[in-house]
Each structure stands twice: as C-alpha cells, then as structure tokens.
Amino acid sequence: MNGEPGIWLVRAEGEALAARLQECLGGTVYRPWLDTATPQKAQFAARWRTHAHWVLVGASGIAVRFLDGLIDDKRSDPALVVLDEGARHAIALLGGHEGGANALAGRVANAVGAVPVVTTATEAVKPLTVGIGCRKGVPAERIGAAVSHALALAGPYGMADVRELATVDLKADEPGLLAFAGQHGVPLRVFARATLAARGWVTRPSDWVRQNVGVDGVCEPCALLASPRGALVVPKTALEGVAVAIVRDQFELNRMEET
After folding, report:
1. Is residue 93 within 8 Å of residue 82, measured between CB atoms?
2. Tens of pLDDT, residues 56-70
C-alpha cells in the first residue's frame, strides 16, 4: 500500500479542502466524477487497498456505503477518516488504532480547522487534556518536565491519563512539541489564534504572550477548548519556558469513579 493518504472527493465542491489537505498531508487526490461510466462505489473499491490511509471528503453515510463488502480485518484494513465538506468534523471511521485513523483525524483536523472525532474506547477513559505554550526551540525534554510537573499538581496522574495535547497554531510545527507528542503517542490539537482571542479563558493574562502571539494566553484556553465539558484543575504553571494547564473531563472522571 502507498504510505501517503488517498484523498477521495465525493463532489467537486471539495476541491478547496483537497488542496489544503494535499498541502499539509501530501497524498493523491481522486476525482471520481471524471469517470462518468463507472459508479463511485466501484471506483473506490478498485482503489481501496492502494493506500494505507484514506480521507473521504463527504458524508459519513456515503463512506459507510462505500465500505460495504470491503472491510476484512482491523490489522490489515486501511484507515479511513471522513471530513464533511464544511470542514467541521474529521471522523476516524475505520482503523482507529491499528490503522492509524485516530492520529490521521487529528492531522486532518489541524490542517483545516475541524474538530477531530475519535470514538475508540481507549481514548474515552482518559480524562485529561493538556494545554501547552512554549518558547521557540524548547526541546522535548523540557516540555516533558513541565508537563510532568503539572500532572503531579493535578493528582495521581501520568501521561497514560492524557487524551490530547493542545496548543496554538503558531506552535503547530514546533519540533520539541511534536517530538514530545510523538514519544507518548498523544495527539496534538491546534487552535487558531483568532479562536483563542475570541474566548477570554485566562486566569492570568501574559503581556509577553500578548505581544508575541497576539492573545492573552495559550495553555488555558487551548485546554478548555479541547475539552469543552471539562474543568480547569491546574491553571497555568510555567517551568523553563514552557507553560502548561490541565483540564479534567468531568463526565469521564465520574464514570471512572462509578466503575
């Protein structure tokens, strides 16, 4: 299978999204309407195993119909992420863990500003979201030390309890942050500065962040946006150029306590 994703457009209206996805993820764009003689489902079936990862731009119902008869084994099936044409949700529909759809959903979401939708059980029992802001060039080791410090303040938690990391778009390609996320296999979610500026969820505004990033703060609003039903359990704490805030999902916490 091709290591780069296949990007399947159900309609020509998805061209702008395809261009953005290809810019960020690489891959091959498929335009099935150009073949008027062959139904889309047949075209998709013929190419299904040419890519290890797929992004289908269209409705989830269409994706389900396309997959009919193609699914074999979770250890060998390609991963499939569905992105609606409004770029609102990137859904890891097939191959969440084994195929890498969960991670792909995060990358797709970051590329177009969508919300990643992950439904696998392993992520569902992780109650923490960690917001991170950092100075340029901070290595992964320092980010790890700051996160560990914040986790200790939150209670008896570790990285195994972290569902997602969150940061601002200015830090989307920060090598140390990407390395830290990769080391722990935790998705990194990115929010636009305009989104953070529209939500004043900051306990202690920072003049430095305001001057250099254009918002009052990064770690707290990022964590709260990524976990909208959560509560801030560790406000901004800074260590050697890394600011961390932790939000705990109240629903997941209550469910864990009940079981």
Report:
1. yes
2. 999 999 999 999 999
